[in-house]
Amino acid sequence: MMRSLYSLISPGGSHGRLSILILHRVLARPDPLFPGEIDAGQFDQICAWLKEWFCVLPLDEALRKLRQGQLPRRALAITFDDGYADNHDVALPILKRHGLTATFYVATGFLNGGRMWNDSVIESIRLSHRLALDFKGTPLEALGSLQIGEQGRDALVRRKAIDRVIAEIKYRAPAERQDCVHALADRAGVELPKDLMMNSAQVRALREQGMLVGAHTVSHPILAKLTAQQARAEIGDSKDWLEALLGEPVRQFAYPNGKPGEDYLPETVDVVRSLGFDAAVSTVWGAARMSNDPFQIPRFTPWDRSRFKFGLRLAENLVRR
Questions:
Q1: How far is Cα 201 from Cα 72, in angstroms, rounded to an integer?
Q2: Residues 223 and 168 in one domain
Q3: How do residues 222-269 score in pLDDT, each as one tens digit?
Q4: What secondary structure does DSSP assign to 13-82, as a single string?
Q5: Kind of pairing between the strands at 17-23 and 288-289
Q6: Beta partners for 78?
Q7: Are residues 203 and 85 in the same domain?
Q8: How many domains does the chain have?
Q9: How far are the Cα atoms of 83, 173, 217, 234 from residue 220, in angstroms, in the given order?
Q10: What is the DSSP string of 168-209?
Q11: 174 — phi, psi (to 5°)?
Q12: Less packed terminus of the chain by CB within 10 Å, N or C?
């Protein structure tokens, strides 16, 4: 049923529509703090659905065929953002088992023992044995005394605390964000993990196993908040680092957060284009068409658990304008 529906609404040729899934993590097991996060069992199921319903292509090939008006029917590509270690350890074996490929956009500054700032927030609150965090005298003073509940019991309270802190920090300058997360970890009294992101060998292994690797800046900033020179350094340095690691050109880029006008600007697109990329992806919902700007390609992923709802939401996205 779904395959027939997609054949109708995802035609090939010059009218082709390319679905591009955006993912971040595939957890080895469910996380009580983030029950909606995809785990290994669910990802295995999603891969089985995609293989049954779609013609899954490497993103570079899919975009090339889209531009040439030669896209096959029911075309789809899979992408991952950020560079989490579970992309290599958990997602890669599942992709290989199903004979599928994906593109992994890597924020290079967090590899080899680093962490994204939001994960520092999550793990500080997850691991803390305290019931409340007092932020008086810190860059997070506006939060006052934040109740986080009891470790291992009050998952909902801790999740709400995480969301509040992330909202408070998200659009601050990179240096200020780091000051905030250092203050948070100090008040939480925790030692943060150093194995959340991939190391260099894991990134190379993805490529050696037939996956694509793209750039995602160095420190995952809000590019719209940076000067043109700062944005060029963030984007260009990540590209250069990955090319040195992999020994080949890196042609794909993903905008951090990815909302046009909010997270990146037209000037940012010009920077990406000038640095020699072939394409860049956003987080705007929709399916890619021949008329799309190749440096602002839309992506989408259903959040539904059931086969029918997951498939139906993919269909809705294909007809979205």
A1: 34
A2: no
A3: 999 999 999 999 999 999 999 999 999 999 999 999 999 999 999 999
A4: BTT-EEEEEEE---BSS--TT-TTS-BHHHHHHHHHHHHHHSEE--HHHHHHHHHHT-BPTTEEEEEEEE
A5: antiparallel
A6: 21
A7: yes
A8: 2
A9: 11, 11, 6, 8
A10: HHTTS-HHHHHHHHHHHHHHHT----S-SB--HHHHHHHHHT
A11: -50, -45
A12: C
DSSP label at residue 260: B
50, 56 in Cβ contact below 8 A?
A: yes
pLDDT in tens, 53-71: 999 999 999 999 999 999 9
User: What is the C-alpha R_g of the chain?
Assistant: 20
Which residues lie across from 13 on neighbouring strands? 71
Same domain, 150 and 96: no
| Tokens at 92, concatenated | 């890669």
pTM of the model: 0.95
Residue 229: partners with Cβ closer than 8 Å, 6 or more residues away: none
Q: Structural domain of residue 133, as residue ranges? A: 117-188
* 87 and 210 share one domain: yes
